[in-house]
């Protein structure tokens, strides 16, 4: 029996993440629902692999009332224990740890460092450090010859986007009609001690790529369509993802496959499930907006859609011993 810890901070009741979003706020409710969906999808996939025993970090109320399978147990935080302390405490009694957490305030990086590379399922600390910064990501991709919003900055006379450099999703992302308005937003955020960046708004179709990355492979799993909305005040809102909405026969698929391989090579240390957010421009093709070094909402329902166990594939790329484990479970 192999032990795997699954952790997502909001569904585990982490007080720091909850307070940062505002308890009961629309943002907190939205991200909690997304966190629960991703966590439960991972647990469901892992539960189908024989020889696994899964530990899920939950809130006290869920621990008392949820009905979990016999080989899934729950743990809760100790009083005053934050995400990093809980994961560090639990990691030593588990062979592997699968964490879903945002890059905001360096949380995902700190959790990876608390677990250590031998037990961590996912990207290396250095890859998280790069992908966790939108400016560092764009710089790395530009060096690899991959188009990003930076390619449109010079002479751009259209709209601009301002967002946190380490933000997740559309959190605190705002559209502005001009560069001057964007720069005013940047100044306000700087006065408030917030690190943000401005980029040209790239019009086109919002898409994403879900891929599994191992030491010697980068395999696209699905090409998805992103649903975004803009409020009257310019704030962008994520309305969800249509998983595998781009059909295999779509003429853009070869370019998207090639892009996934180039992105994986451009940021060494990407591992496990990785998401690439992009905009497809009719003339220029794909423009990468950001890289998510973690499970995204596109994971939810993906195994059923592909008719294979995505968690098993990810475990198989984690390390040779994990590959043997998955093979012996019948999910090779």
* Parts with pLDDT < 50 across at least 5 consecutive residues: none
First-residue to last-residue Cα separation: 18 Å
Sheet with most strands: strand arrangement:
3-2-1-4-5
> Main beta sheet: strand number and arrangement?
5 strands, parallel
| Mean pLDDT reading | 90
Strand content: 25-35%
Helical amount: 25-40%
Give the overall silhouette.
Answer: globular
Structural class: alpha/beta
Q: Please tell me how large the radius of gyration is.
A: 20 Å
Helix tally? Answer: 12
SSE order, one letter for each helix or strand: EHHEHEHEHEHHEEHEEEEHEEHHH
Total beta strand runs: 13
Distinctive features:
332 residues, alpha/beta
3D structure, described in words:
The chain is of the alpha/beta class and about 325 residues long. Among the domains are: about 1-120; about 155-200, no CATH class. The chain has twelve helices and 13 strands. It has helices at about 15-20, 25-45, 60-65, 85-90, 105-115, 125-130, 135-145, 180-190, 255-265, 300-305, 310-320, 320-330; strands at about 1-5, 50-55, 70-75, 95-100, 120, 160-165, 175, 195-200, 205-215, 215-230, 235-240, 270-280, 285-290. Strands 3-2-1-4-5 form a five-stranded parallel β-sheet, with helices on both faces. Helix 4 (about 85-90) runs parallel beside helix 5 and helix 5 (about 105-115) runs antiparallel to helix 6. The radius of gyration is 20 Å and the shape is globular.
